Amino acid sequence: MHLTPQHILLAGATGLTGEHLLDRLLNEPTVARVVAPTRRPLAEHPHLQNPVGPLVELLPQLQGRIDVAFCCLGSTIRQAGSQEAFRAVDLDLVLAAARRARELGARHFIVISALGANQSSPIFYNKVKGEMEEALKAMDWPQLTIARPSLLMGPRNEFRFGERIAAAVMRWLPGKYRGIDVCTLARALWRLALEEQDGIRIIESDELRRLGR
């Protein structure tokens, strides 16, 4: 378990999970600095470094030591506008963040993938998530943690009728298929960051719920 002050990179700090994770990181006594590049400015904090602009442009400019990197980037095809735009965020941008984190010295990369991620899946969303996972594995990280949450439950800035219906159903499903509260996920991600376990670890949603209690 890490005891020395940590320097953290957080990609996706304005998303549903990223917001909760950022709040937790900034209140952890073992976190010395959080680098969170975003398109819009975040509230100031003495431990927060917040470059503002398009992430693809900011990543090469990031400087300083990074110990652990979190990637909470994620969209939907509807949000992105096309399959190509979705792939640019959920695959290309994730990999760009991982490469830059590695260049800055990070030894542990923690990424949010998705339940059912599989590069051979006939479902486009799951296929892209699976391709992302395989590409990260090929980077040969000292420690790679892949979190596969089920449907995220929590307050959103936008109304998604389909997700409201799905959440009402998935709240009662068994095992890894049950929806997971975003606060629970954020707590689980931080606990995973504290663990030193070389190699690749894939964490399904039921284990994420357990870790985040």
TrEMBL record:
Name listed for the protein in its UniProt record: Oxidoreductase
Q: State the Pfam families in the record.
A: NAD_binding_10
The record's listing under CDD domains reads: CC3_like_SDR_a
* Entry-linked SMART domains: Semialdhyde_dh
Residues covered by the Semialdehyde dehydrogenase NAD-binding domain: 7-106
Instruction: Note the InterPro entries from the entry.
Output: NAD(P)-bd_dom, NAD(P)-bd_dom_sf, Semialdehyde_DH_NAD-bd
Which PANTHER family does UniProt cross-reference here? OXIDOREDUCTASE HTATIP2
Give the species.
Answer: Metapseudomonas resinovorans
